[in-house]
């Protein structure tokens, strides 16, 4: 809750201006604060008197490390920190949602559906933490913030690295008795299984409003934690067999976080879909209240020596030197470092038991958040050399593929349909950059995002049309969806669009001349032909158009002559089709709906159709090296590999794990594995053994394989994640 | 619908409108999006203290008429109005600004939700908007700008924006069909043919907005509408202005049909806007936007020195 600053709070701290108090305790104070660049953060500070204790300082540093490792998906994004300052501080994102204990107080016990979604997400978060060699040790309802996109674990005040006994030696009585594990209660090692015990207590509290061992004096609680059966009163019947075993006194008898993820929740829908209205309203209220809060400061008591009020808007305190400084874009720098730490701690800990969760999954090389104010606008990242080009609501930005580092951004004039690449160069079409007449295509300087002089300037075409799309770059040729300038178009008219005359034109980038022009005949007044996918292959350009009804039409264009070869409706949903690259090779176009189909590139006729026994639907296909891959959308959701030439089944995934999610993402094919998207995350299926090699437990809805950079890039609702493309699985290492 | 463009001919990283550095656009641009009467952005002052929704005219719009309407919009008050708090000086390129609140334009809310909004949401939206219009009409103000994109959804209710878009697009007496920024289905026939905007035109726009919220487009077949909304919406969309209900009649139809123990004379739509009035994914998108704008940084010389 936002409360006014006290009269003796400083105006600024570590370069942040303080706006409000978020919390206050024996260790220090948490403020709502703002950086000089306008970023609003939660700033946690430790009293200098407490920071003089080396153990407390160590805890603060470990908390900072743990917060970096858990990252912004399951925790609060770390913006900056200085654990070595006289008054150590940690700046994280201000999390928009109530702590779980407040949520239960406010909304009453949560419905089973909410508890399951929370539990699955928290178990996933713990799995990630444990895989990095960190145990939380103080999971309790007040340390779980419930946001609209999932819970975030905060406050790693006593988290520590496994096997790190520096804190134990100080004899600190860590943990909260009500949610403490029996082994923690007797001062023994609290392992990952201890966090599972605490998680069950937290979920029990969410579902019933009471903890597993009631309330009372710490000594009584500790006794009950060790000897009493947990109180499961009020727990929905179906949850008892899941949470009960987590509260076993013997750590070895508890399920793993991975088991919990699978048993609690199938992964359908968005997290917010599972929350009760009252809780959603509270989240929304908090998300809005932070903008309506006006900074103020309580007056000093009468006669107080510092009664002169310091204005909150005073210049930021820049004099304090940050010893642990991170320059540049804080978000990227910190997440990159977090990922590096995560990766290295994993390597140090090769004995992570296979049964615990993600097991052999490779650690993400980096992750970053992507601004997606309008999800529909976000395309797949483009791969240009060693860079990723990401188009978001804020425009086009470039990210270094190997590190996730932001290279440049903010070219907000461009949308995803304004840019295209040949893999080496990036081009853009946009009238707004050129207040001249006509249509212009220019190369974007990959070093800084600026536009070079136009390679093509065509006065006969209307560059102001909103529906213009740069479809693709194929060698020297740029393909465009555009229209000619009409007489009545003036410089002032903004591009509402011609009523007739949309066309597919191609231009030579070296000479700037127009090569070909193909007039499209679907000119619906006020409608734009909307190309949702393009793939050039050999002698053809394959275009997917969104139809008025939300379906997809395919148009195949001869790249030499620019003439249409054939056009046909496909039984696909345009939004779903737009997520995936078009599956096409020299001979066929492959689609999947009720069956996997191959159409001849030459004339659109059906070459073959594959439908497994009792399988009525398939997810989108991928083709590579004469093999078509698709996932059965019913039953066990097995991956099938089909001969691209004949349509004969080559192999079917062994021991598939059933999951009930919607299949919208095509598999991605590497040299060793096929990567399949499933409810639990990304599953790598070995191309030799045909079974799962590892699972990356993070649900992401778009994947781009970046073979050259050795990376697999996934884009989810928030994060973009880079995984090593062909990590050595257990079978080959 | 309008594409964003810079004020200079060169791409400028530190893009600004008035004193505000732009963080992001409010409206998605591109094919398939209903037109928006203004270019809207989330912006932030250089000192980072003020975050605003800043609006600027479309290319080619008359800057004088734009400023006149922005100024007049300050007379439109009520809880469901996006207030115009700041206005460009007459010598500047025109813009106006409102304090930032996390909001989604109605078309974005439909996109996020995955289709038409639930009847409960549409009804609450209709009550809040008709309440606002009834108040304006009572003091002789005609909004003249209702369209799907003019309705912003905040967590606690709508915020009506784009005041005077019809009058800005073309002066009275000129045909207004096919003008940029005007959503054809939301434009009352008498206004399209050049008539001076009057309250019945707002009611027509309200009908189009509710139709859009309930079906995804502004000119629905009446069978597409939920039965309970069919009559009020189609009556609002009557071509004959005289046959349309007044805004207060729409309000009593929408707010009266629900059991509203909490509704009062002063707050007739309050009960409809309680928890659950927005679908979960719309709430989630509002929260996400808030988090992203909180995290947004505006690069200024100050922040560069702060890193040293």
UniProtKB/TrEMBL annotation, chain A:
Mind listing the UniProt keywords for this protein, alphabetically? Answer: ATP-binding, Kinase, Nucleotide-binding, Transferase
Entry-linked SUPFAM superfamilies: Protein kinase-like (PK-like), Quinoprotein alcohol dehydrogenase-like
Q: Tell me which species this is from.
A: Streptomyces mutomycini
Q: What is the lineage of its organism?
A: Bacteria, Bacillati, Actinomycetota, Actinomycetes, Kitasatosporales
Where the record annotates domain Protein kinase, the positions are 16-271
User: Any idea which GO molecular function terms this record carries?
Assistant: kinase activity
Output the InterPro entries linked to this UniProt entry: Kinase-like_dom_sf, PQQ_rpt_dom, Prot_kinase_dom, Protein_kinase_ATP_BS, Quinoprotein_ADH-like_sf, Ser/Thr_kinase_AS
Is Cell wall biogenesis/degradation among the key words of this record? no
- The residues that hold ATP are 44
Q: What is this protein called?
A: Protein kinase
Superkingdom assignment: Bacteria
TrEMBL record, chain B:
GO molecular function list:
protein serine/threonine kinase activity
Regions crossing the membrane:
none
Task: Please name the PROSITE patterns in this protein's record.
Answer: PROTEIN_KINASE_DOM
UniProt-annotated stretches for the region Disordered: 172-200
Does this UniProt record's set of keywords contain Transferase?
yes
SUPFAM superfamilies, per database record: Protein kinase-like (PK-like)
InterPro entries cross-referenced by the UniProt entry: Kinase-like_dom_sf (IPR011009), Prot_kinase_dom (IPR000719)
Give start and end of each Protein kinase domain.
Answer: 20-263
Identify the keywords attached in UniProt to this record, alphabetized: ATP-binding, Kinase, Nucleotide-binding, Serine/threonine-protein kinase, Transferase
The protein here is known as Serine/threonine protein kinase
Please name the source species.
Answer: Streptomyces mutomycini
């Amino acid at each position: 809750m936002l409360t006014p600053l006290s009269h003796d709070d400083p105006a600024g701290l570590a370069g942040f201006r303080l706006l409000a108090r978020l919390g206050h305790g024996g260790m220090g104070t948490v403020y709502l604060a703002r950086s000089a660049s306008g970023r609003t953060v939660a700033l946690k500070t430790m009293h200098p008197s407490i920071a003089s204790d080396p153990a407390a300082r160590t805890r603060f540093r470990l908390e900072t490390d743990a917060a970096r490792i858990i990252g912004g998906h399951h925790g609060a994004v770390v913006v900056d920190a200085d654990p070595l300052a006289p008054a150590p501080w940690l700046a994280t994102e201000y999390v928009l949602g109530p702590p779980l204990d407040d949520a239960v107080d406010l909304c009453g016990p949560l419905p089973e559906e909410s508890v399951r979604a929370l539990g699955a997400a928290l178990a996933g978060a713990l799995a990630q933490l444990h895989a990095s060699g960190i145990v939380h040790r103080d999971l309790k309802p007040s340390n779980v913030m419930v946001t609209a996109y999932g819970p975030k674990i905060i406050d790693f005040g006593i988290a520590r690295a496994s096997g790190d006994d520096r804190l134990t030696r100080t004899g600190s009585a860590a943990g909260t008795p009500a949610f403490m594990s029996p082994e923690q209660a007797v001062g023994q090692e609290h392992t990952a299984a201890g966090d599972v015990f605490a998680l069950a207590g937290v979920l029990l509290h969410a579902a019933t409003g009471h903890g597993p061992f009631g309330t009372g004096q710490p000594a009584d609680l500790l006794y009950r934690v060790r000897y009493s059966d947990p109180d499961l009163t009020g727990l929905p019947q179906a949850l008892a067999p899941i949470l009960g075993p987590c509260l076993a006194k013997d750590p070895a008898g508890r399920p793993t976080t991975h088991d919990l993820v699978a048993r609690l929740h199938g992964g359908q829908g968005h997290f917010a879909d599972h929350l009760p209205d009252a809780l959603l309203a509270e989240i929304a209220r908090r998300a809005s209240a932070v903008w309506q809060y006006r900074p103020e400061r309580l007056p000093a008591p009468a006669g107080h020596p510092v009664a002169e009020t310091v204005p909150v808007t005073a210049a930021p305190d820049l004099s304090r030197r940050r010893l642990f400084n991170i320059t540049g874009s804080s978000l990227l720098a910190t997440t990159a470092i977090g990922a590096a730490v995560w990766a290295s701690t994993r390597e140090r800990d090769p004995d992570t038991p296979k049964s615990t969760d993600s097991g052999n999954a490779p650690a993400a090389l980096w992750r970053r958040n992507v601004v997606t104010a309008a999800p529909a606008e976000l395309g797949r990242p483009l791969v240009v050399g060693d860079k990723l080009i990401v188009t978001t609501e804020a425009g086009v930005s470039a990210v270094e593929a190997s590190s996730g580092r932001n290279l440049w951004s903010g070219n907000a004039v461009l949308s995803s349909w304004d840019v295209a690449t040949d893999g080496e160069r990036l081009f853009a079409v946009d009238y707004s950059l050129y207040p001249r007449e006509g249509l212009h295509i220019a190369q974007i300087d990959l070093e800084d995002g600026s536009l070079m002089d136009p390679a093509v300037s065509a006065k006969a075409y209307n560059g102001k049309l909103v529906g213009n799309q740069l479809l693709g770059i194929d060698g020297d040729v740029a393909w465009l969806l555009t229209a000619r300038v009409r007489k009545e178009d003036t410089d002032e008219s903004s591009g509402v669009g011609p009523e007739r005359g949309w066309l597919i034109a191609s231009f030579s980038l070296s000479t700037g001349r127009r090569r070909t022009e193909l007039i499209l005949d679907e000119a619906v007044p006020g409608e734009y032909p909307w190309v949702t996918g393009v793939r050039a292959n050999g002698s053809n350009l394959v275009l997917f158009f969104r139809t008025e009804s939300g379906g997809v039409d395919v148009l195949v264009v001869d790249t030499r002559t620019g003439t249409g070869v054939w056009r046909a409706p496909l039984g696909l949903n345009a939004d779903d089709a737009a997520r995936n690259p078009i599956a096409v090779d020299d001979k066929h176009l492959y689609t999947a709906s009720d069956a996997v189909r191959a159409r001849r590139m030459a004339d659109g006729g059906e070459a073959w159709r594959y439908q497994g026994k009792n399988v009525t639907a398939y997810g989108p296909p991928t083709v590579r090296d004469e093999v078509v891959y698709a996932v059965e959308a019913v039953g066990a959701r097995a991956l099938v590999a089909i001969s691209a030439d004949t349509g004969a089944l080559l192999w079917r995934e062994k021991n598939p794990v059933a999951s009930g999610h919607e299949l919208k993402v095509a598999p991605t094919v590497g040299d060793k594995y096929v990567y399949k998207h499933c409810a639990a995350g990304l599953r790598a299926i070995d191309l030799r053994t045909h079974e799962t090699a590892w699972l990356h437990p993070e649900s992401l809805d778009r994947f781009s394989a970046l073979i050259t950079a050795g990376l697999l890039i996934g884009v989810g609702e928030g994060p973009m994640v880079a995984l090593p493309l062909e990590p050595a699985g257990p079978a080959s290492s | 619908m309008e594409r964003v463009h810079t004020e200079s001919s060169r791409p400028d990283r530190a893009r600004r409108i008035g004193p505000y550095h732009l963080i992001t656009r409010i409206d998605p641009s591109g094919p398939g999006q209903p037109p928006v009467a203004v270019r809207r952005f989330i912006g932030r002052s250089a000192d980072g203290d003020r975050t605003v929704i800043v609006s600027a005219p479309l290319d080619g719009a008359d800057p004088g008429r734009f400023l006149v309407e922005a100024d007049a919009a300050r007379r439109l008050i009520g809880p469901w109005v996006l207030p115009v708090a700041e206005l460009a000086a007459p010598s500047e390129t025109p813009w106006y600004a409102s304090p930032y609140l996390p909001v989604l334009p109605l078309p974005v809310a439909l996109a996020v939700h995955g289709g038409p909004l639930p009847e409960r949401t549409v009804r609450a939206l209709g009550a809040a908007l008709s309440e606002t219009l009834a108040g304006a009409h009572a003091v002789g103000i005609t909004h003249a700008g209702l369209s799907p994109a003019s309705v912003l959804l905040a967590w606690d209710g709508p915020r009506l924006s784009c005041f005077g878009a019809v009058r800005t697009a073309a002066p009275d007496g000129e045909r207004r069909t096919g003008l940029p920024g005007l959503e054809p289905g939301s434009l009352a026939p008498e206004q399209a043919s050049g008539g001076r905007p009057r309250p019945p035109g707002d009611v027509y726009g309200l009908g189009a907005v509710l139709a859009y919220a309930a079906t995804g487009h502004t000119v629905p077949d009446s069978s597409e509408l939920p039965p309970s909304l069919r009559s009020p919406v189609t009556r609002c969309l009557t071509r004959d202005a005289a046959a349309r209900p007044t805004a207060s009649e729409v309000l009593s139809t929408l707010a009266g049909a629900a059991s509203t123990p909490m509704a009062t004379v002063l707050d007739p739509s309050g009960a409809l806007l309680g928890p659950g009035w927005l679908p979960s994914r719309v709430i989630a998108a509002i929260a996400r936007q808030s988090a992203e704008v909180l995290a947004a940084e505006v690069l200024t010389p100050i922040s560069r020195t702060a890193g040293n």
